[in-house]
Amino acid sequence: MASMSPVDDDEIDETLPRVLCVDDEPNLLAGLERTLFGEFDVTTAPGGALGLELIESEPCFAVIVSDMRMPGMDGAEFLAKARERSPDSTRILLTGQADTESAIAAINHGAIFRYLCKPCPSEVLIPTLNEAVERHRSAVIEHDMMETTLAGVVDSMTQVLGLIAPWASMRSATIQTCVKQAARTLDWPNAWIGNMAAALSHIGCVSVPSDIVQRDMAGRPLEAEERAILDSHPETAFRLLQSIPRLDAVAQVVRYQNTPAPADADPDVVLGAELLRAASALARELANQQPMTRALEAVAKLDPPVRYGVSQALRSVKLHSGNSTRSARVSDLLPGWVVAEDIKTRQGGLVLGEGRELTVTAIMALRNLLATGSIEEPLLVACPDTARQA
What we know:
Helix content is 52%, strand content 11%. By secondary structure, the chain is of the alpha/beta class.
């Protein structure tokens, strides 16, 4: 059973760094609590399984300390799994055995910061934990900076796509809507991978002649050579994305959006690629004026098939809104408004389907299409009453 430091909850200094200690010896855990009292906010667990439960249910731990030799799940296995669930937490191994190979295995598989021999004197343990806390803080700062940078990069790339290939931008926006809603149903912890992959799914179309993209989006036939050029866009996107830090999984999902990912690929890549392939099929059917029921049937008939959970998750997708409607010029459109009536080209090709939420990228693409005379205004949109009255 998990326990906290032997003080009342209201006496705990919330500014103290949070440390999780895992060991199957109750006496050792009690000793660690006494040693670290006043320096750290300590949580203990008598084994790896409960330690993982605490990592998933509690606020992030700055440091995770584990014994090496424990029944059921040893320290190497536990810290490797802890790394998957809380990558920014710094991991420390305590070992009482003179087993160098086991310690090295733990370091390699769990990315251990330090390993210390038991019993570890407080004059060694506390300074080591303080170093580990600083390492955690640096990791969190770097993570936050990278997330902000990545969001900016993705937004810039999607805006470029909207300027160069508005047709492809429209399709990726529809796919992103489907992926985002389905991912919530799947309860996917790393759904950001799928969302980013969907947003960037057609970024490779910047290298494809616009007339090829436009004819494909309109459901018109392509010559074999033209089809080959269009089918190369996922690989082009992969080459563009793979060099961006922390976008490796996203790049892989985009690469395998039309074909199954390798069986030995990261599970997030396999799931993301399946979801992106299914969402693409759904968006394609909807763009061809098919009702949602028929579009879902097409997803179920994909070959090779996607897992049942993915096809079922897409049934939760809703592309309609109950907001008040109004006619609006393209220059008046705002992000968050919803398309209330299909937006089509002068030739009848679907640009944006009813129920699609307008994004900055979608609005920019509509402006480009209007400038080239491909669409007409006004458009019928749904928006909050406050916007309508304005």
